[in-house]
Design goal:
Elements: H1 6-48, H2 55-61, H3 63-79, H4 83-97, E1 100-101, E2 106-107, E3 112-113, E4 120-121, E5 126-127, E6 132-133, E7 138-140, E8 152-153, E9 158-159, E10 164-166, E11 170-171, E12 176-177, E13 182-183, E14 191-194, E15 199-202, H5 220-247
Parallel strand pairs: 1-4, 2-5, 3-6, 4-7, 5-8, 6-9, 7-10, 8-11, 9-12, 10-13, 12-14
Antiparallel strand pairs: 14-15
Length: about 250
């Protein structure tokens, strides 16, 4: 008959039980954390989307929330080296929501992707807390460079519909990228960038009062043209005065 080492069997059973207990504990903690994160995201949608009428509607029908929830799973798989499974999850979410978030992207709490169709977030993109992204936004790269090649967004950043933020640039806290803008350079905190390529319009270090307003924003091209027009008018008036002075007859 084979010999049984009771001590080894007991130790093995203890180790197996400890591993099971740790797995259950980790799963419970992860589930509790996930529920807390989803609740936080739902609250963010309620605060920033006037069309949201209830928590159930957001939980079941908002593609931005679905894409963000799927990204949590794909990002965890990606960090553990399961890249194929991670991409499988992200591509499945893209098929359902129309939002493509690479599993490698790092995203903070309270991200609101409003409508979301056509949103693309690249592998090395980093997004801070409480940011808002509208449809058609791309956080992309500018070529085949390796390493950090996608944007970094601070906290409370708003990216307007159709805007493109390209390259390893940094968008500071509370900054605002206007709809349709193409940002290719860093945007400082508490500022607005508009146009193609995007130009920064300083707001004096004061946070924009309505960070969801994509219409009432300064137009630097228009302001420059207005300044040139005013200068041209001043020069015209000066020329008229000089011509009048030249035409005056000299006194005998």
């Amino acid at each position: 008959m084979p010999d049984f080492d009771v001590k080894k069997i007991a130790n093995g059973a203890t180790m197996a039980f400890d591993a099971l207990r740790k797995t259950v504990k980790d799963a419970y903690r992860d589930t509790r954390d996930l529920v807390g994160e989803i609740r936080y995201d739902i609250k963010a949608f309620r605060q920033r989307d006037p069309a949201a009428t209830g928590n159930t509607e957001i939980l079941l029908l908002y593609s931005g929330l679905h894409a963000r929830t799927a990204h949590r799973l794909s990002h965890k798989l990606y960090k553990k080296g399961h890249t194929f499974s991670a991409r499988l999850v992200s591509q499945g979410a893209k098929f359902i929501t129309g939002i493509e978030i690479h599993p490698g992207a790092t995203i903070g709490r309270g991200l609101v992707i409003d409508h979301g169709a056509g949103v693309v977030i690249g592998e090395t993109a980093e997004i801070g807390d409480n940011c808002t992204i509208y449809q058609g936004v791309t956080l992309g790269g500018t070529g085949k460079n390796v390493g950090k090649r996608h944007p970094t967004l601070g906290n409370n950043v708003m990216i307007g519909a159709g805007a493109k933020v390209l390259g390893p640039l940094t968008i500071g806290d509370n900054a605002k990228i206007a709809a349709g803008a193409v940002a290719l350079h860093d945007v400082p905190a508490d500022s607005t960038a508009v146009g193609i390529p995007a130009r920064v319009v300083s707001v004096g270090g004061v946070r924009i009062a309505n960070d969801l307003d994509q219409i009432h924003i300064p137009d630097p091209v228009k302001e420059e043209l207005t300044a040139l027009r005013e200068q041209s008018e001043k020069l015209r008036q000066r020329i008229v005065r000089l011509e009048k002075s030249a035409k005056k007859p000299e006194k005998e």
